[in-house]
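To close the section, here is one more complete example, presented without commentary so you can practise reading it yourself. The ligand is glutamic acid.
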Amino acid sequence: MTHPVYRKIVVKVGTNVITGRDGKLDPDILDSLTAQIAALAAQCVEVILVSSGAVGAGRGIVTLAGNLTPVETRQVLAATGQIRLINAYSDRFEKHGMLSAQILVTKGDFRDRQHYLNMRTCFMALLHQKIVPIVNENDAVAVTELMFTDNDELSGLIASMMQVDAHIILSNVDGLFDLSGDTKRVIGEIDPSSRNFSQYIRPGKSEFGRGGMLTKCNIAHKLSRLGITVHIANGTIPGILQSIVNGDPVGTRFLPQKSKHGIKRWIANSEGLEKGAVVINDGAIAALTDHDHASSLLPVGITGVEGTFSKGDVIRVCSENGTVIGYGMATCSDEKARATLGQKGHKPVIHYDYLYIVP
Ligand code: GLU
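Output:
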């Protein structure tokens, strides 16, 4: 038996992998995926499964009456379909002698550090008990700004939170295609630090929707900076998870860069969840973006404070023309930051250990 190259992984399964042309859950694919995860568990690989398909499964069983809004339609289909989806998984895992658990989350669950840590404790406890966590967005309550872009984003946040070795995104395509030549070819390996992968993505509507290749690449890019390997592969290929975990060259692999410690991972993932912002001058930008010296953000470099925040909240750091420089955890409230703005001799508003500079 080949030795697994990963010990802890997040596997994200797209709706298009587990539903057939008729929109119903595909029993053969579900059999195959659960058998593969069971085989990985037997090799002591910890797996967190993030599965889409609630709305799809709902569509296969509900006949909607009356005039529902798109939001109501999604809520009804997801709330109904999620039961089918989770049962489909849990019945199959039981056949392999394994327990599984359902975790439904919203974007808000990643907003507050304490809530984030509670969520992480739950995942850790489940893995410790050898129970497979099966995650989906809580589509019944997640509406507009509380929604993830898609489950690729959600699974990326979980991969980062759990500091997994690899994040495997299974869809119904073989990977990221090199579109520069005449023949389409899957790119086996991408070093996100040295290659601009966006050149391989054909701009078009399909690439930007929920589950599009562009979101996948952006998440891969971000996770790679956090030291996590990302794979994009075809989930309908038999044995695909085994192949990836055995280190076989299948699909597209985004190489990891150096790892960041826990709090910075959380801050790096806080984009869009920040409670306020500080605007900083050019001198402060130069100091914060100097790769040779780690600098904290001092009040003297701050020219403006926006929003309402408390000590411990994540805030955005912007230039005077609105460019986002980074994100950090505030050491004080917005009131205190306003009171000391532009002044020398005060404590940092963001300490460098709690500051993430956008690349
Ligand atoms: N949470 C949605 C579902 O279960 C899927 C979201 C996505 O496709 O990324 O249907």
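Once you have examined the tokens, check your reading against these statements. The chain has twelve helices and 15 strands. The two ends are 40 Å apart (CA to CA).
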